[in-house]
Design goal:
Elements lengths: L10 H5 L4 H22 L1 H10 L5 H27 L1 H16 L25 E6 L16 H14 L3 E4 L7 E6 L7 E6 L4 H11 L7 H9 L25 E8 L5 E8 L5
C-alpha cells in the first residue's frame, strides 16, 4: 500500500486543552483507525483463501477472488480517508505531543493487541437490563390494570437464552438499562426504556429504542436491546463505516430480512447512523 501523506495540525490546536466531549470523540476516531488497521492485516489472507479450497468451477474462483479484491480496495480507501482527515491528524499529533511530554513510560501497542479497547463511559459489550416497574399499575390508568408476571418471566428467560451475553433481570438492580411497563386495560401494556447513564451515546440509544414500531411487544424490545451489545464494532449497514462525520456510532436499529452466508434470507437487526437511516 502506498504511503499515506500526513497533514500537520496548527500549533494552536495542539496546545489547547480539550474538554471531555472532544476527548471521547478523539478516542472513538482512534478506535476506528485501529479497527481498520486490523482489517487490513487480513488483506493478503483474504485474497489467498479462495485458492486454498476446492471451488465448484474456475468461474466461481474468479468471482470470489474479484469480490475480495473489491472489498479490500474499499477497506484501503476507507483507512486512507480516515487517516488523511485533518481531525485524525490533529488527534495523532496531539497524542504524540502528550506522550513526549509525559514522564510515564507509555508502551506502544502492536496492532494485534487490545481489540475493542475503547469504552466510551459505559457502552460495554455486555449489557445489564432490569425489568423495572413491573409490580404496580400506572397511576394514571385504571387500578384494575395488571401485569402478567408469568409472561414477563417467560419472555425474559427466552431472551436470556437467545442472548447469553446480556444480563436480563427482574430485580431492578441495573445501573445501565431499565425497562418499565405501564399497564392499561384499554391500551395494553406499553414498555419504555430509561437509563441512569448520562452519556450522549446512552441518551441516543434510549431515544432510538423508545421510537420503535412495536411498543407493546416485550420480546421485540428485548431483542432490540440485545442488538446493541456490539455497538462499538458494528458498522452502519448503509455507509459501512463505524463512525459518522460527528464521530457517532450507528445508533438506529431496524429489523429486516437479510441474505445470510448460506444464501437464505432471515430477519436480523441492522444498524444505521442517524444520518443514514
Amino acid at each position: 500500500m502506498a504511503a499515506v501523506p500526513a497533514v500537520s495540525a496548527p500549533a494552536s490546536m495542539l496546545d489547547s486543552q480539550w474538554n471531555e466531549a472532544q476527548i471521547e470523540s478523539a478516542l472513538a476516531r482512534l478506535q476506528e483507525m485501529h479497527a481498520q488497521l486490523r482489517l487490513l492485516r487480513d488483506a493478503v489472507p483474504r485474497l489467498i483463501d479462495p485458492m486454498l479450497v476446492q471451488q465448484p468451477s474456475p468461474e466461481d474462483l474468479y468471482s470470489t477472488f474479484a469480490t475480495n479484491v473489491t472489498t479490500i480496495k474499499s477497506d484501503v480507501k476507507d483507512f486512507s480517508i480516515t487517516f488523511q482527515n485533518s481531525e485524525s491528524q490533529e488527534i495523532l499529533q496531539k497524542a504524540e505531543k502528550s506522550r513526549a511530554e509525559s514522564k510515564e513510560d507509555i508502551p506502544s501497542w502492536r496492532v494485534t493487541e487490545h481489540e475493542g479497547w475503547l469504552d466510551v463511559r459505559g457502552v460495554d459489550t455486555s449489557m445489564d437490563i432490569a425489568m423495572g416497574g413491573m409490580n404496580g399499575a400506572d397511576p394514571d390508568a385504571d387500578q384494575e390494570a395488571s401485569i402478567d408476571l408469568d409472561y414477563l418471566r417467560a419472555a425474559t428467560e427466552r431472551s436470556q437464552k437467545a442472548n447469553p451475553s446480556v444480563d436480563f433481570s427482574l430485580d431492578e438492580k441495573s445501573n445501565m438499562i431499565k425497562v418499565e411497563c405501564k399497564p392499561s386495560p384499554r391500551q395494553g401494556s406499553v414498555y419504555t426504556v430509561t437509563t441512569s447513564e448520562k452519556t450522549n451515546t446512552h441518551a441516543a440509544i434510549v431515544k432510538a429504542i423508545n421510537a420503535r414500531t412495536k411498543p407493546k411487544n416485550l420480546e421485540h424490545l428485548l431483542e432490540m436491546l440485545a442488538s446493541y451489545t456490539d455497538i462499538r464494532s458494528r458498522r452502519c449497514s448503509k455507509c459501512q463505516r463505524l463512525l459518522d462525520p460527528n464521530a457517532q456510532f450507528p445508533i438506529v436499529r431496524s429489523k429486516k430480512k437479510t441474505k445470510q452466508s448460506d444464501g437464505h434470507y432471515r430477519l436480523a437487526w441492522e444498524a444505521y447512523h442517524t444520518s443514514c437511516n
